Each structure stands twice: as structure tokens, then as C-alpha cells.
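re: ur question from earlier - yeah i can do the single chain one, its not a big deal. heres the input i used so u can compare w yours
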Amino acid sequence: MKKYLVLMVGLFLLVGYSAFCGAQPEEKALDWTEDKMTVRVEASGWILKKFPVQASADKFMADHPNITMEVTANPDTSLNNYMLNWSAGDIAVDLSFGGAAVQVAKLAFKDLLLPWNDFYTGEFSRDKFLTHSVELPKRGNDYYALPFMVEGMALEANRKLMVDAGLGTKSSPAKPGSLDELYEFAKKTTKGSGDVKDVYGFSWNFTNFGDQQLFCAINSLGGKAYNADGSPNLESSQLVDIFRFIKRVTMDGYGTKGTITDTNAGRSGLKAGTMAIIFEAASRAIEAKPTLGDDAILLPFPGMEKNGTYIYAHNAFIPKDTKVKDAVFAFMREQALGKEFASFGAEKYGKLPSMTRNYAGLSADFSQIQQWLANPKTVGDHPWVEGAKLNGYIWEIEQELVSTDITAEEAAAKLRKLAAELDLSLVK
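and the output i got, formated as C-alpha cells:
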């Protein structure tokens, strides 16, 4: 018995000693205000051009000498790369800029993102943002991305071409109150004869802004864009009305087909003075100001002042396994959501602030779009499981609509049939 007890005590001591010797000390949490650390930031190429990401990183480092900021451009396939790499635990970035809710939702679905829930406090509480934009990237109770800029759909127009056509005055350009009036605007501003006009009155984008364009139009006209479960409402009567307008204005020669082969044909034509009115992101009007000056203006799509527009955001997101969360949060608060960062993107490129305070001091063009974005009836980006396929069908059918004898009713029925075969539930 004594031998047994001695043996047991010995084993106990041996195990305890081994555990003591092999135990790893707990990893000390980094203090972002004092400890040296590196914050790795990636951003899409166009974001690096249209926002001062590097300059903001430089200022942040100057204010916090213990922090090194590394800013790089991410590849076009970054979200796909993140899905693969982050799933395997290969984290080479701490903060990424770029990605609509529908794209970033896929990372959240794989549980690869760090939520921003505790970011939204004090002067950065959710009510300080355009509420629609904050709620878009939400999964369950978690806010998996933070909108640093937003876009809103509207009509962008050449004021001079409108006034010359008798559509209002320079101080008060006319606003189309219906699709029929928008058709008349396009007809009056079109110049030239033959198959190719000198100036087209209207441009619908047939290769971009698929669901954004279509569901914005449905909503502005007073229709119901989405069903209660968040799926697209393709039974709306406004769908046929919109298709009928697209076909009529284009086939009658007042609307261009240029965006079928060049997605930038509308915005390029607006800048060049060969397009009177286009329906795209509101930023197109700001982009046209270097060539058109104050003649580049925003107009509401019919019904938009009453029923709101369509808002979508580009987001910042963080991999779940980052070790420098507090530093990332500080960079967003001190720099990326600051006045200078926001006004740079807004005044130069029309990329709108996500925080309401950053609209103060911007040019008058932004007061209109802010009101439309803040309208409670405004609708937003929806992350459908097969949303990309739906967009493909929308473009395909709209192009067919203006290139063949298919009617608006037939086009709407075809879209409904194809959409019924897709999974258009929300990514959760």
C-alpha cells in the first residue's frame, strides 16, 4: 500500500511539474496607445485614388509614433482571396476598404469578420450615420462592416441643355414628375437626326446598376421594391411601367443604347455635353463638374422627393483574427470618418459621407441627395444569395428590350420566370 501511495504521489508531482514547465504564459493584450504595432490596410485601387487613405495613415502615424501603418492596393479578387485565406487562418491584413454589403456578407456568413458593434458609441453611435447605410451590413445582431462612404441613385443632368430646350430656368431647372414627363424631357433635349444623335436626351445603364437602378425606380414611383422577407418584389406594377419607358425612349431615338457596349457611355456623354440626362449614382454629376461646371446638376427621378431613393455603401471590414482591433477602431475614428477624408471624396468625386456631420460645409449639391438618402422610404442594398445572377438577368432582359420586338409585359414576365429559379433569400 505504501509503495502504491508513493507511486501515486510521485506521478502527481511529475504531472504537475510537467504542466508547470510546459505552460505557456497568457498573451498580453496590446495597448494601441503605447505598444509598438503594425496596422496593415488594404483598399481597392479606385478607393486609393478617390480617398486620401495613405495621407490619413501618415497623419495617424505622426499622431501615434508607436504605430506603423502599411497601406497597399488589394487585387480585384480580394474578397475571394479573403474567403480562402482567412478561412485557412492566413491573415495578411487588419483593415480592408471596399465592398458593398452584398459582397462583404459572404465573409460574414463564413464567420470571418470582427463585428463593429462596440465601435458605435458616443459621437460614433449609429444615429450619427445615415441610418440606412449602417443597417445594411448586419447579420443577426452583429454589424459586420462599417460604411465609410455611401452612394445614392438619382438623375444627373446638363442644366444648359435642359434650359435651352425650355425645361425650366437656370435658377430653377424643371423636374420630371412622371415617366411620361421624363420621356418628354428626353425628347426635347435630343439633338440631331439619323441613327446616331448629336445629343441624346436620356441614358439608362444596361450593364451596371442592375438591381440598384431598377428597384430605385420602382421605389421612387411609389411601388414596393422588396417583399417582407427581403426578397425582390418583381410583381410590382411599376416594373412593367419602367420597362415600357425604357423601350419607348430608346426605340424612339431619344435614349442611347451606348451603355450596352460601354458601361461608362452615359457618364462620359454627360461630361462631354452629348448626354442631357442619365440615371446612375449621384456621384456622376460631381464628376462632370470639371467640364460642365455648375451646369452639372442632380434631379430627382420621378417620385424621388416623396418616396426616397436607393442607398448603397462601400464598407470597411476587419478579419476576425486581427490583433490590432483597437488601433483600427482609432484610425477609423480619428481619420477615415473625419471631415478631411470625407470632403476629399465628396467634393472631388461625389462619394458621399456616411456620417451626417460630414455634410456640413459641402456644396449645395449634397443637400438634395442627403435629404433623399435620409428619407424613411429610401431602400437599400440587399445581399441576396444569388443576387449577382439576378443582376445578369436584369441586364440581359433590358438589352433585349431595346434591341428586339419583345414587349415590356413579356420582358417583365421573363424576368419573373428566371428570378423564380434563383435563391433570392438574404445571406444570413
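The two ends are 62 Å apart (CA to CA). not sure if urs matches, ping me
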